[in-house]
Structures are given as C-alpha cells and as structure tokens.
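User: I'm putting together a teaching handout on how multi-component assemblies are represented. Below are the sequence lines for each component of a complex, exactly as they appear in our records. Could you produce the 3D structure of the whole assembly as structure tokens, so the students can see both representations side by side? Please keep the chain order the same as the input.
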Amino acid sequence: MSERPILLEASDVAKHFGGVKALRGVSLTIREGEIYGLIGPNGAGKTTFFNCLTGLYVPNGGRIVFAGAELDTSAPHKVAARGIARTFQNIRLFAHMTALENVMVGRHQRTRAGVFGAIFRTPGTRAEEAAIQRRAEELLHYVGIADRAHDLAKHLSYGDQRRLEIARALATEPRLLALDEPAAGMNASETGELRTLIEGIRKDGITVLLIEHDVKLVMGLCDRVAVLDYGEKICEDVPAVVQKDPRVITAYLGAEAQPAGSEVAHG
Amino acid sequence: MSWNDLKHDRRVLWAGYAAIGIVLAVLPFLVGAGLGNAWLRILNFAMLYIMLALGLNIVVGFAGLLDLGYIAFYAVGAYLYALLASPHFGLHWPVWAILPLGAVVAGGAGALLGAPTLRLRGDYLAIVTLGFGEIIRIFMNNLNAPVNITNGPQGISSIDPFHVGGVTLAKPLSVLGVTVPSLHAYYYLFLLLALVIIFVTIRLEDSRIGRAWVAIREDEIAAKACGINVRNIKLLAFSMGATFGGVAGGLFASFQGFVSPESFGLMESIMVLCMVVLGGMGHIPGVILGGILLTILPEAFRHAAVPLQKYAFGKVVVDPESLRMLLFGLALIAVMLYRPAGLWPSATRKRELQGGSK
Amino acid sequence: MDIFLQQIINGLVLGSIYALVALGYTMVYGILGLINFAHGEVVMIGALTALTVVKLLAGSGLPGPVIALIGLMAAAPVCMAIGYGIEKIAYRPLRKAPRLAPLITAIGVSIVLQNLAMMVWGRSYHSFPAVLPAEAHEVLGATFTDLQVIIVLVAAGMMAGLLLLINRTRLGRAMRATAENPAIAQLMGVNVNHIISLTFVIGSALAAVAGLMVSANYSIAHYYMGFILGLKAFTAAVLGGIGNLAGAMIGGILLGLIESLGAGYIGDITGGFLGSHYQDVFAFFVLILVLVFRPSGLVGEKVAERA
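Assistant: Of course. Below is the structure of the complete assembly, with chains in the same order as your input.
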C-alpha cells in the first residue's frame, strides 16, 4: 500500500476545550485508495479529530495537507468543496425531507443554479435539476435503499438512515469519505452489508477514513489503523500489528492488563 | 373515480384553474356590490398580507429563522415610495422605478440586518430581529428633526397613487368599455403581484436554493457538512423575504396615499408571523390561507361585534374594538391547540403528526 | 456630574423593576425553553388590580404603606391565578408541538388579557393615588424619593428571597432539576407538572410586585403598559443570559442604567442630532451588540456548540 500517493497528511493537529486537551498534536497520513481506520477508547479524540478535519472545530494548532494543497478548515463547506465528505456518529439527516431530497442536498456544492435560474427555470437550470435528481436516484440505488426514495428520512429504519447518510456524503463527490462509527447499533447481518458497501466505495476510487468501535469490522476492513488514546496517536500500522501492540491493549483494557481477546468490547 | 384520480386528471385541473381564475376576476365586483367598499379595501389588504406572509415564510418557514422584525422591510418599501413620490420632498418618481428600487433596497436591508444575526439561534435571533424592527420604527418616528426626513409621527401624506404613463389608478378606469373603479383596479394590480410572488415562491421552494434553506432549518451542521455555505444561504433567505416585503410596502404606500410609523409596529410583525404559523409554516397554500384568514377574521369580528351584542343584550355592553381583538386572541389560541402544525400543513408535516414521531 | 448621578438613580429604580419582570421570563425559559410572551400582560393586570384597590382605600385613613400592601395582597393572587391558567391552557397541551405553536398561543393569550383589561378598566390612563411617601432627598445635586428607595430595596429583597428559594430549598432543587432535564427529574420522583405550574405562579407573583412598583413610580397605569414593559424585561433577560436568574437581575439593572444614561446623554453624544426620545433605541442597540458579540448573554454559559 505504501507506494500509493499520499492523499491527506495531518501534522500536529491539536484541539483544546478550556483546560481539556482533546487532541495533543495528532499526525497521520492517509494514502489514496486505502481504507484507514481510526480507533481508540471513548473520549480518545476520534470524533474531535473528525470535527477538526471537516471544519466544525477550529483546531488550536497543526496543519492538514489534502491532495497536495493546504486544507482550509475555517468553514465546513470549504472542506466539502475540496472533496472531503463525512457522516455523523449520531446520524444527522434532514428529518423532514425525503430520502431523495436528502441526497439532492448533497449535490448543492457541485451545482450552480441561483435565484434567477430557479425562478425562470432556464434550460440550464432544468438540465442541472434533472441531473441532480438522476444522480441522487443512482446513489440511493447504490447504497441499496432506492425503494425508500420518497419516504421521509425520519421514517427510515436505523440501518437505512446510516446508508442514506453515506449516499448523501457520496453526492458531494468526495475523494475522501470520513465515516464516524457507521456500524454503531447495527446487527451482524447489517454490519456485513455495510462492509460490502464500504469495500465497494473504495473500489470506485474513494479513500475511506473510518472511525469504528466494532474492532472486528475495522481489523477485517482496514488497510491501516491508527489508535488514539487521550488525544495522542499511540500506534499506526496494519491491523495485524496494531492488534498485538501492547500499548493498544493497555489503552483499551486499562492498566490492569487482562488477557487480550481479539474482540475488544466497548460501550 | 376517486377524488385523487380526479385531482390528477389534467382536464379537471385546468377546469379548476379556470374556475378559480373566474372567481378571482369577478370577486371585487361581487364584494363591492354585496358587502361594500370597506370590504373591498380589506380584500386588497389581504393581497398585501399574502405577499408579506409569503416573504416571511421564506425566512421562518423554509429556512427556520425566527424573525420578529419582518415588518421593517414593509416599512422600508412604503417609506421609500412615500419619499420618492409625494410632495414631502417634491419628488414624483415613476412607479416602474420606485417599486424595483424598493425591492432592491429592502433586499439589501434584509441582508444587512441579517448579517449580524447569523450566529444566533432561535429565540436570540427572534429578539434581535425584534430589536431591529423597533429601531427602524423609532427612527421613522423621530427623524423629523433636526432634518425632516420622515416627518415623524405625523407620517407622509398625499403620496402619489399608482400610475403608469398617463394612467392612474386613483380614478375609475375605462377598459374595453367597462368602468373599473379605483379600488377594483388596485385589486387587480395587487392580485397580479401576489400571483407573481406566489409563483416565485413555488419556483424557489422547488430548487437547489429551496432545498438548501430547508436543509439549514432541519440541521445546520449537517447542511454545512454537505457543502452548503450556510452564511450565504441564510442571507439569501433574509434578503428574498425582505424583497417581497419591500414590494408590498411600496404598493401599500401607493394604495393608502399615507404612511406613518404606526402601521409598522411590532404587532404588525407578529400578525404576519401568525399568518405563517397559523396557516402552516413552510407550506405555500397554508400560508396564503393564513394571510387571508387573519386579514378577514379581525375585520369580520369588528363588523360582528356590535350587532352581536345588540342581539344578545339589547345594547352595546363592551367596546366593540376590544371585543373583536378578544375574539381574535381566543381564535389564535384555539387554532393552535387543535392544530399545532397550522390549519393547512404540508403533506409531510401531516404525515408526521398522524404517523406519530419516534 | 449631577445629571450623571441622577440618571444612575433613575436607572437603578427602572432596572429593579425590569429585573423583577425579567425573572419571570427567565424562570419559565429555564424550565420550558419558551418565551412566555404574555408575562408583560400579567404585570399590567397586577398594576391595574393593585391600583384599583389602592384607589378604593385611598380615603380610608389607613397609613399609605398598609394600603399599598393590601393592594399587593389583592394583585398577587390575581396574577398568580392568571399565570397558573396561562400555563395550563396555552402551554401545557403544546409541550410536544412544533416550537412556534406555543409562541402563537402566548401571543393569543397576550391579546386576550390586554383586551379583557381594556373592557374592565377602559382605554384611559389611571393615575396612582399618592399613598406612598414621595419626599424628595437631595444628594450631590441629584434627587431621589423614599418611594424610589423602597422600590430598590423591595426588589433586592424579592430577588434575594428567590435565590434562597432556588438554591437552598427542596423545592428549589426540584426546580433546578426540572430545568436541567425534565425526563430525569421525573424519574427521580419530581412532579414536573407541579414544578412548572409553580414556576409560573412564582413568576407571576413577582410580576404583581413589579406592577405595583411601576405604577406607583410613574403614578400611572393603563391597559397597554404591559407590552413595552414586557418587551424591555425580556430584553433584559436575554441581555443577562436567558435561563439564568443572576443574569436576569444583572441584565435588568444594566438595561435600566443604559436606558436612563442613554436618554440623559444621547443629545450630547450626537451633538443634538438625536434627542432623548431615542431612549428605546439604546436598549435594543445594546442588546444587539451584546448578542452579536456574546450570543449567550453576559452571564450565560449554557449554550454550547453541538457537533
């Protein structure tokens, strides 16, 4: 994998909340086309890193280079424009819009129609609107919920809501898709389908950054894994190595090192 | 054949439109002849309020930004018209210049007042917009000294009526041999502009911009993550809403011939907000219904207040003015208690209420 | 210097009244997260009820302060009953409704109360009989009356009492718990509905006191007074950080000071261009500045960015 070009390089990203140092200078490198896992105990700073990366938080230090140029994380929409899309740990859909409309919103950045075009419905706007809808339908089909297109997002099942969020993120045409615990709350068969979906996304040329608690999923899916603990990266390697790293085992199980199982349970 | 099939039959649809068109066309003559000119004026005001309600609906209903100072933009449009077309400054600009200018200035004011409020949420936004509304009103009230700009509480009178070329709406018009009285002519003008605004609103709702507004209302953070420039889209909502207000304000000034700060108080903002919420926030037909009902209802109560008392007690016991407002207040409460999502909510809202939420 | 001191005194008196009313807004907001738009009208009803009773007793030979106290005794239950009723009728059924629905019913209640008051008391201004000591004292060129001193002291006393109630009693603990998380409070055995009703009742009692004060201070009351007073008090609550009791008090006093200093000096500041009738602009202008630069209010800390 390591011969692939670098897509994202974060160096010394730090974030403090008052006296709490949520991120203490995290550096990591994600290469094009890989599935990169970010794991760690609760409160290790995984989601904080996501929020810094996607412009929801202003980091206190560090820089991020994406696709060869400095990433301006001052506003989320600028990050999205550069080609980074994300999902949220506690699903954030537009509850009173249909599934299709949710994905259509994802096309916002990649389309141009303004007030004038909307009012006069110029040929250009009309073509664009049709393209938006077509693409949204394709994406719903892609994640496997085409039959729910006209249901309100809030009426979708939990698993379908996760898929819808991924479809919406894909609609922004990302080069890097950041998924925040996509398998949370899913049963085994749903997780299996999710895994297939993520592998498919990678196959289509999109790099995936994955925060996940389901260690089995991470180890089976990711090319490389970084482990965060107390806001610091304590380890970064291929899953087989990470799994056996004593620092990781300690971080997950606490100081009183119990026998390490391959399944590290978490609440 | 069920009602739904009927609704989707194109011929039925067109017949329906034609029927509505005919009703709207003859309405002023029916109202004028049947109920008198007072009601015709009320009908004209209903058109203005529909424009205002639809403008506020963009801000509150679509984008979810609670604005309690919306009437300020109505005021901007009205005062702009009054200043540029009255003896006050001796200016008599043509309508075709003032109305678009009013729309642009109000739209600019919308963006200007919206800008500092972008970070505010919910009730904080409400109170700041309310503050802006009051500030504008207070300035209108007091900018008569040392330089007389607004003529203070006395307001500006003798404003030019709506006129294009040599044709003025102040006098009865003769169109194809039919004499159209002034009130009726204003009705057609307002109807036309209300239809334009309805059309614009429908088009905007079903567009990339409209989806972005609703997305912000639903979840601002998710909207940002989807690549929406929330700041610009919010400003656009404020600005579009204000534009409608500016146009309605200009029309109001030309129709009334007189403007004063009294017409633009907080109660007016609240009235327009009630129209939006009571009708069905975010749902265009509902908002139109709200605009019509809340214009007509208080007037109907006014006309009913005296006869009703005479009938019940044989004499007028309480002040009819307060009785009508009392009834109006009770109606507001009753409607909200029984239909919290408004009288005519959008289908998705209705589904949500019936289906029960999670 | 004397103008400055005078405006400070006036501002303190005005601010004390704002603070009392603001407490009513902020308590309700803290627990239900809604603007009790009708609260200003409760103040108005309190003022007019007290004024009516005081007028009746004015010639009875009773000492002035006793008359005022009886007026308050009459106004407080009326206001408390109205506060209780408002919550029960207009807000409780809508607790799970869309957010703007209770705002509209509140506006409805406001209109109803205003017009009921107009039916009972008419459109005219009522003057408040001079039963309270109004002797003027002079300090450093500024004057203040006994009445003004009483207003500030009573307001301070009421606020101290409320703080004790909220922070030191079982009831206060239940109120704080409900404000923090109603569902959990319910699980812990707090009767949430009861607490919410009580919040309205306490807020309305404060409103009655404020009503008496404002009508005694300006010697006048009328059916329309609640609107602008409520608006200012709400502004004060937001200024301090809505939902925060100390914030409401600070916000109220501050708004009173800003208004009266603003009214006193605006002419000088603008070289005579703007006069003292721009007093209200000051209140709103400061409010907007505070909210834009410190959206959670001066004391508020609760609003955190969710992500």
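A couple of points students might notice: Confidence is low (pLDDT under 50) at residues 353-358 of chain B. The radius of gyration of chain B is 21 Å.
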